[in-house]
Amino acid sequence: MSKVANRTDWADEDPDELPAQQILTNKDGSKTFISYRFNDDGKKVKVARRIRTTVVKEHVNPEVAERRAWPKFGVEKGHPAGPSFDTTSVGENIIFRPSVNWKAQAKEAEKTGEKGGIKDQLKDKKVKCRICSGEHFTARCPFKDTMAPVDEATGAPGDAEDDDRPQAGALGGGGASYVPPHLRKGGAGAGERMGGKYERDDLATLRVTNVSELAEEQELRDLFERFGRVIRVFLARDRESQKAKGFAFISFADRGDAARACEKMDGFGYRHLILRVEFAKRTT
Amino acid sequence: MRPILLKGHERSLNQIKYNRDGDLLFSVAKDKVLCVWFAANGERLGTYQGHQGAVWTLDVSPNTVLLATGSADNEVRLWNVKTGECVKVWDFPTAVKRVEFSPDGSRLLAVTEKRMGYLGTIVVFDICYGDGEGGDLNDQNDEPSLRITCEESKATVAGWGYLGQYIIAGHEDGSVSQYDAKEGEQLENVQAHEFDYQINDIQFSSDRTYFITASKDKTAKILSTRNLAILKSFPSDTPLNTAALTPKKDYVILGGGQAAMDVTTTSARQGKFEARFYHRIFEDEIGRVKGHFGPLNTIAVHPAGTGYASGGEDGYIRVHHFDKPYFDFMYEVEREQMRR
Question: Record's SUPFAM superfamilies (chain B) (predicted)?
């Protein structure tokens, strides 16, 4: 009753005065401490902390416990308890895992560590000529002037290498360098491309090179429209000068038309230059 | 595990040792300073001052009352562990390379160097512990109770066999000999290591029935105290300075590295400055712990087997507390044994 009578109206409370700390005992044996303080903005904050005290009993050899209390002597005389920074520091964490085949594991780790050396990477690579696949540089090839370089399209050994690569990079295939997901085996085409329904059929797209600097998109469209419906004409231009960069892409609605255009227009003279037309390669 | 680095010495460590309870770690180095540390947190409790030369060796009595040290200033000193006072000095004609208390602490052996016309000797003193309260500790015998002279090859290290019955000594020529601890006669002598490769360390198992020796011939061997039979052999690829037996788990820890004088001409990687762990029974190397910049001169294992400390030529002591994988490691056969 007296409590109620003594309670003052909240409006009469002194705003600068903090209520005394309250300690409540909870059912589970823990205690709740409720205290008040002013925070940095000068606002009154209530802080409730729940603390459970547990007694941890540790058995220590009495002699050891006694030695812990020994006063320091010698150079350390008069120094406070606790490790001093000039004599004691903590080292880097060491992962120590005993293992039977420790030696093999260490060797492997050493090997991967050595991978950084370019010399080691190239150790088992041989020089290969791009013209005749012989063991010499392309520039030194005896057939340099008589044979054209073996192109990727003609099924050069380089192609086979390209096929191997995604396999090596398959998920979980240990050790190999990073291969982006869309290049991994089985990943090709699985990822959705951007562009949605407007995705172009690359099969009906021609790449035109050796285009004059002065070429216009409309002119190219007129040239190729003769073979069929042209969906898109893209002429690469320099960003600053707005001059054509020398190549363009022409997309046809129908692949048959594209094939015909490719055949007819390859070698066509346009603005004093001979066009080269071929099917565009799918960008990867 | 995260090692604690103790930097209390200016020069290379010569010996470190835990007391029997494993709470204190004592260290001596070439810089005349003796340090004692709390093994748990690396706090330095104190230093003992008085030696005038490099301190080669130390040992602490089983009851952690007395500390014995042997040094290059031809002295063996006894110290009050608690206060850091020197309670006794014994003078010798040559440097003292090794001291060790007997298992009951009643006797102390000291190995003296062969030099300047003096032969290497092993001397034994009877030790008194005063009134038991830390008083009257300076009441010690002046004369040794036993003197063994090593005529053939000087002893480099020595220790007590089980119950203080034998004195086991490792020699400069790679042999190990067994002496009667009462009469001082040589009972056995075995060429345990390659001829003329010095034995650098000898450490006993907790019951002292067998011991491990580390030699310059790149091997460590476990010998039986009773008849000096070679029980196990641990080959490594570097001269060994120290070897220790781990209680609780059946491992051994070997430490070594390129000799200090060759260090500047070899890279840290080739230096092999690692503590090597071998399985005591299967003799396989099971792992290494890196850390030191120089050869490991001394390794001490916590008497309870919960950690180890190593002292290197680089002047650092690294105190390691083992963590779970260390205790969990077992061979397949051991695991099967457990299941039964």
Answer: WD40 repeat-like
Which of B7, B82, B289 shows the shortest C-beta gap to A94? B289
- DSSP at B314: T
Q: Is the pLDDT of residue B232 over 90?
A: yes
Sort out which chain B residues have CB atoms less than 8 A from A67's CB and list them. Answer: 23-24, 64, 82
Residue A199 has pLDDT above 70, yes or no: no
Break chain B into its structural domains and give their ranges.
4-339
- Residue ranges of domains in chain A: 16-80, 205-279
CATH T-level fold of A205-279: Alpha-Beta Plaits (3.30.70)
Q: What is the dihedral of CA A15, A16, A21, A26, to 10 degrees?
A: 30
Please state the three-class secondary structure of chain A as a single string: CHHHHHCCCHHHCCCCCCCCCEEEECCCCCEEEEEEEECCCCCEEEEEEEECCCCCCCCCCHHHHHHHCCCCEHHHCCCCCCCCCCCEEECCCCCCCCCCCHHHHHHHHHHHHHCCCHHHHCCCCCCCCCCCCCCCCHHHCCCCCCCCCCCCCCCCHHHHHHHHHHHHCCCCCCCCCCCCHHHCCCCCCCCCCCCHHHCCCHHHEEEEECCCCCCCHHHHHHHHHCCCCEEEEEEEECCCCCCEEEEEEEEECCHHHHHHHHHHHCCCEECCEECEEEECCCCC
Chain A residues touching residue B41 (CB < 8 angstroms): 82-83, 88
Least Cα separation, residue B263 to chain A (angstroms) = 22
CATH C-level class of B4-339: mainly beta
pLDDT digits (tens, 9 = 90+) for B260-316: 666 566 655 566 788 999 999 999 899 999 888 888 999 999 999 999 999 998 899
Q: From the list B82, B285, B326, which residue is nearest A70 (CB)?
A: B82
Q: Which of A58, A66, A70, A73 to mutate to test the interface with B (most CBs of B within 10 A)?
A: A73
Say what the pLDDT of residue A173 is. 45
Does A78 touch chain B if contact means CB atoms closer than 8 Å?
A: no
What value of ipTM does the predicted structure carry? 0.78
Condensed to tens digits (0 to 9), the pLDDT of residues A138-154 reads 777 777 766 665 554 44
Pair B201, B213: CB distance under 8 Å: yes
Half-sphere exposure of B291 (CA within 13 A, CB side): 29
**What are the pLDDT digits (tens) for B306-317?**
999 999 988 999
Question: What is the pLDDT, as a whole number, of residue A159?
Answer: 41
